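Journal club prep, notes for RB
We'll compare a predicted complex against what the paper describes. Inputs for the zinc ion case:
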Amino acid sequence: MKYCSECAHPVTYQVPEGDNRERAVCDQCGTIHYVNPRIIAGTLPVYQNQILLCKRAIEPRKGYWTLPAGFMEQGETLEQGAARETQEEAGIDITCGQLLSSISVPHISQVHIFFLANMENAEHAVSTSESLAVKLFDVDNIPWDEIAFPTVKKTLQFYLD
Ligand code: ZN
């Protein structure tokens, strides 16, 4: 960042007293801007012996298959965020079940967290511009070579194990 979010004065990068890493510090109002990892919440929706995947309509990894997931919003719980993203990307209303995976991705400062979600019926839809397709796959038919992200692949493996 270049400018203070409080007063718009230019910031400088320095280690604040008592801290141990550089932060963007405002020389005018003294605000220290902390930047922390972001949380991606999602689900692994299951109907009978099938797993629901979404084909990404946007970069990165456009055209590859992924589980419904996205950035948590302010004021929601992990489970609410995961359920909201599942509704937005796959058009299904689910309740989060057990936690399946919680994976740190430090090189991009993210944490990816997935819950199991049992679908009450097979209905689903491409409900946003984020998905090109939404499909139920038999567990023997997962497109392993076309999975968008390593954390999605790991989560699928955790579930199948
Ligand atoms: Zn300031």
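Talking point for the session: Residues 4, 6-7, 9, 26, 28-29, 31 surround zinc ion (CB under 6 Å).
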